[in-house]
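Exercise 7.
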Amino acid sequence: MPPRRGSLPHNHLPSPPSVPHSSTSGGAGPGATKDDNTTATLVTAAPPLGNGSSEGKATVPPADGAVVPADGVANHILSGDADKAAEGGDKPSLSADNPRLSALLAGGKGPEEKEGPSEGTATTPTEPHKKVNNIHPAVLPSTPHAQGSSAASSPISAMSTATPSPKSSEHNQTGGHSPSSATPTAPAVNGNGKGGISEDSQSPLKADPPASTCFKATPPHIHGSSSASSSISIYPSSTDVLKACRNLGKNGLSNSSILLDKCPPPRLPPPPSPVLPKDKLNPPTPSIYLENKRDAFFPPLHQFCTNPSNPVTVIRGLAGALKLDLGLFSTKTLVEANPEHLVEVWTQLSQPADENWDPTGTKKMWRCESARSHTTIAKYAQYQATSFQESLREENEKKALKEPSDTEPASAESAARKRRGPLKYIKFGTNIDVSDERKWKQQLQELSKLPAFARVVSAGNLLSHVGHTILGMNTVQLYMKVPGSRIPGHQEHNNFCAVNINIGPGDCEWFAVPEPYWGVMSNFCEKNNINFLMGSWWPNLEDLYEADVPVYRFIQRPGDLVWLNTGTIHWVQAIGWCNNIAWNVGPLIAHQYKLAVERYEWNKLQSVKSMVPMVHLSWNMARNIKVSDHKLFEMIKYCLLRTLKQCQWVKEALAAAGKETVLRPRTRDEPAHYCTICEVEVFNLLFVRRELLSKKPYVVHCQDCARKGSATLDDFVVLEQYRMEDLMQVYDQFTLVSPRV
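Solution. The predicted structure, written as tokens, is:
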């Protein structure tokens, strides 16, 4: 289908033809490909963070809430000097001709910074005037902000915000972007200038991390601060909370004065405003080249990746800089290590990355279905190798025949006809679990070379505080691909960040849309009769262009790490034969926590299970970390308050019905519990049918579903996993601490 408004920008044009690659059996070497015609840019840099780069001893906190080692944790675990991460030598620093950036890198405040370090972190002074490689600042264009913000109620809705006053300085904080003052437009730095796919660049979005809450109140007391306010804290003690909950009746409803203003239920955000001009809909992707290990451990790299202004960042040359042995994840090594390991297979139609056709090749569509099956690593490796050999044979046959279509320019009509059909089927090996340290010891040890913010396990990673395994999120997953293998459009579970490394030898093509546009994307899915959260879809780029949705489009080469920021919508297609590894990360910042909770509440309304148990996680965070950022503290504390009250309400209702709870403490590594009927998280008080009490894991019901099955709860036993006294102690001891100066 030709463009409807003249020529589309390069993100909306067809992909370049696939280039044959070397055999997949060898894997990629430790080096990484670096194009000579591109320039790496660091778009912006906020005040340097003690980003946890010295953290190297973190372990996953046990389920019982024991405190983890906190060596150099990212933002809120106050610990030792983060500068040691570079492991010797002077710290690198960025040189910049941007006054704000230069001031920030010198350890001071830029002209736009009016507050202290973001997220209440312990800052690391950075020596000025030491140039670091080829990372340079660039000018940011002004960007739109969301007209409204999604918000949430339910047990942990405080962090899901209602729309504040438009005069508020944080009115745009739900994934939106504050409009910046007019700035000169910088020349395109990283595009190839020829209308092709952009590999590197700056982001068109500029925003402060959203972290506003749906209430206004006196700031909470700061633990250990002599200057703490003498007014009453917005958070009462646990004793006051429980006193206010007495005798509320069986329905657990209350208008007690300790309740903060209720937030509206979650909702789809409207399209960001103002609308971006058409020439801003193909933003080049923020990319950073690394030349050595010190670059990878440079603290501003962490902050750059987690800045909401950058929906996606490509860290190029990572494998070479860190001397990662990517060969450990090559097909040959995988077969030698665990040939019978299970592989999930998706059978898909092979087609150009920027198009999605029905099986007949006659109609463009959003729906992108895959048939599911299973095989082993050894069998998929054979398929992968055979696919490569067949491709080489076809190429040789074409050269021998000297087909006119290969040597003469073809008309647009004939090219489209050739492109559409017939479509052949391919097989994509996906969701390969690489979490077992007994099977994958070498591979997992190799990943410990990564900087702390990108590691699978880190005390500065929210997912390391869950206390149990969430496959593919706080564990590594492997993907084995042939050209055309697709990961359809989606956001990561509960809007967490993601890390993806291309093992090679082939490339992957990525498409990404900023988080504030997820409402637009959801509406497109609904128009096409697809479930945004659970369905399988591949966006039509022409539709997105017409709807003024910006699309980042870039190539991920072997050794490149792609950092997907909080809530970024994305879809990926393999260009060549390659393997990838990926996992999720939860930066310890208010923006991440807030968007995770908003999706947690939205999932409830959509009857979708949240893979991250945010209530369970919040209580573990309260046990394991000390928070110095007041925004993050308020959101976590209010979650504790709501769930503490909920536990009291349920216990009061049970007591009134003559029902006693049975203490059954959690075991180590015990997963969080979900209702077997509605799949909402069930915290602390588990309703289990009497006849299934001996079955492990427990078949749990929430109170609502249990009462639907047995109004008097005669058929249920209620297991209590924490004593109220223990929860009260955690609640009272979780206080805001003074940031390290």
